[in-house]
Amino acid sequence: MDDLSKVGKLLCLYLLIIFFLKNYLTPFCICVGRRKPQLVLLDHGLYKQLDISMRTNYAALWKALVLADAKGIKENCMKFGAGEDLYALFAGILTMRPWNRVIDPAVDHLAIQGNASDHSELQVTHPS
Q1: What is the DSSP string of 24-86?
Q2: What is the pTM of this model?
Q3: 42 Cβ partners below 8 Å, 6+ apart?
Q4: ∠ CA 54-96-13 to the nearest 5 degrees?
Q5: Three-state DSSP class for 16?
């Protein structure tokens, strides 16, 4: 199992089995062991317990995001309070992608490659 699959499995366990949403997850919260393959989540204890309705809506939103289903994205974003005019922004914030990439039907539409195009989309600046 590659590292990305391990990260995905780890987050699925948190969201779907433990029923908590980590309030603050960054790449710096995850360590990959050097000596033997292992994945460790650095736990700071900041969690929000999600009720069944919110978990279902959140899962449906991410399903729509992964499938680039514009109608599903809009419907599910609105369940979280992002109105008619803000659902595209909400989806962009969750995925760190502009709307045109969020709804792009390409399989890797949400992948971050770390290239110049990604940096431009994310408006990442590097100190010189």
Answers
A1: ---GGGEEE-SSS--EEE-----EEEPPHHHHHHHHHHHHHHHTT-HHHHHHHHHHTT--TTT
A2: 0.60
A3: 28, 29, 30, 31
A4: 45
A5: helix
In sequence order, what are the residues at sequence separation of 6 or more whose Cβ sits closer than 8 angstroms to the Cβ of residue 26? none
* CA-closest candidate to residue 103, choices 115, 117, 92: 92
Q: CA–CA separation, 16 vs 116, rounded Å?
A: 35
Long-range pairs for 30-34: beta carbons < 8 A, 24 or more residues apart: 32/3
| pLDDT reported for residue 69 | 95
Q: Which residues of 69-108 are buried (b: 16+ CB within 10 A; e: fewer)?
A: beeebbebbeeeebeeeebbebbbebbebeeebbbeeeee
Q: Name the β-bridge partners of 32.
A: 39
pLDDT per residue over 39-80, tens digit each?
A: 555 555 566 677 889 888 988 999 999 999 999 999 999 999
Instruction: Check if the beta carbon of residue 95 is closer than 8 Å to that of residue 64.
Output: no
* Domain spans, the chain: 1-50, 51-128
